[in-house]
Amino acid sequence: MSLASKSPEPRPGILDIAAYVPGKEHAPGVAKVHKLSSNETPLGASPKAIEAFQAMAFNLERYPDGQARALREAIGAVHGLNPANIMCGNGSDELLGLLCHTYLGPGDEGIITEHGFLVYKIQILAAGATPVTVEEKDARVDVDAILSAVTERTKMVFLANPANPTGTYIPVDEVRRLHAGLPEGVLLVLDAAYAEYVRRNDYAAGLELVSASRNVVMTRTFSKIYGLAGLRIGWMYAPPEVIDAVDRVRGPFNLSAPSIAAGAAAIRDQAFVATAVDHNLTWLARVAEALEAIGLRITPSVTNFVLIHFPDEAGKRAEEADEFLTRRGYILRAVRSYGFPNALRMTIGSAEANEGVIAALTEFMGRK
Ligand SMILES: *Cc1c(COP(=O)(O)O)cnc(C)c1O
After folding, report:
1. What gap in Å lies between CA 48 and CA 96, rounded to an integer?
2. CA of 93 to the centre of ligand 1 (A)
3. What residue ranges line ligand 1, CB within 6 angstroms?
4. Which atom of ligand 1 is nearest to the CA of 229?
5. Cis status, amide bond into 165, omega within 30 of 0
6. pLDDT for residue 5
7. pLDDT at res. 3
8. Alpha helices in 151-269, H assignment, sequence order
9. What are the pLDDT digits (tens) for 223-264?
10. What pLDDT was estimated at residue 2?
11. How far apart are CA 64 and CA 84, in angstroms?
12. Distance between CA atoms of 353 and 333, rounded to whole angstroms?
């Protein structure tokens, strides 16, 4: 008796999806847990965002503004963009999905990279299209590899810049070269979830490229530096034709009213963002240096996380380190599903958490 004869059958591709597994949250039996597995900020949200969220508690019977105007206007004001070219989503994950459902169908190909964010592949498959994975070079996106994978079936290219879980980036010149090499009918999606953290002269999130072309979109999130992952707020900056098309697919009230209010207050508080950037720059350098000093290899990161590579040696592997750390209340992210079976990704946390991980890994690496 086959399953298909008993229950409705999902569309082709759906059962090829490996469902997304979020970072671990629990360390059983440990009193104090430091969750460093999902790139959340240790600084929480801006007090102004929290206040705006709380104020909405007395208006919950009303539908939210389906256009999220207050939020789009705040984003536009802070980034110098026309709000008409901004669309908000229930997290940027929703926007990535909407883009796939708007532009991809059976027979189409979406290009992703070897260690790319898993949501791209999931959404390409969900749209019935075919993900095409290209290799990276030293955990960095390889523009030439992407360009040589383009066929007449290619409809979308996904690039996280900086990338997760590697923390690496490609310079703006490389992004331009990638765009210049793509046919006009291919949509280039620049996922800039960690853009705020980057302090490099040759980096750009992609705003100018979006403004100057008809086939580039940039997605951003309030889940990382803004500390609002629990509210689910993302946005994209896109050409008018893309906004118009995706708007037809989007749920009419995809952001909640508290999300719209909190997001608008959060983005207007750029002093809070600056504090978060400073905290991260200080600790990113300290953590990387300390872990390298005990013999671990770190992929150079411009984000709020580091990819830690463990020795290929019994007792010293990533899986064992993960268990060792979890027992002490430090939850990092296993990244086997991203093609790194012997690495862990660590989010830069509070001073206490960072120092705790350094101390625990020093003990781990020193054990006989
Ligand atoms: C965290 C992250 C996002 C953000 O997702 P949200 O749905 O906005 O929370 C998007 N892309 C990448 C690469 C990420 O790491």
Report:
1. 28
2. 6
3. 39, 91-93, 117, 160, 164, 191, 193, 221, 223-224, 229, 234
4. 9
5. yes
6. 64
7. 55
8. 172-181, 207-212, 240-249, 257-268
9. 999 999 999 999 999 999 999 999 999 999 999 999 999 999
10. 56
11. 18
12. 15
CB burial of 148-181 (b: ≥16 within 10 Å; e: otherwise) equals ebbeeebbbbbbbbbbbbbbbbbebebbbebbee
Dig out the tokens for 10 from the structure.
């999902």
Ligand 1 centroid–CA 3 distance in Å is 35
CA 146/CA 134 separation, integer angstroms: 6
Give the pLDDT confidence score for residue 4 in this predicted structure: 55
- How far, in Å, from the CA of 32 to the mean position of ligand 1? 26
Listed as ranges, residues in the chain with pLDDT below 50 are none
Query: Where does residue 315 fall: left (phi above 0), alpha (psi -120 to 50 degrees), or beta otherwise?
Result: left
- Kind and range of the H or E run holding 75: helix 69-79
Q: What is the pLDDT of residues 25-72, one digit of tens each?
A: 888 889 899 999 999 999 999 999 999 999 999 999 999 999 999 999
In whole angstroms, what is the distance from residue 99 CA to residue 285 CA? 36
What three-state secondary structure class fits 334?
Answer: strand
92 alpha carbon – ligand 1 mean position (Å): 6
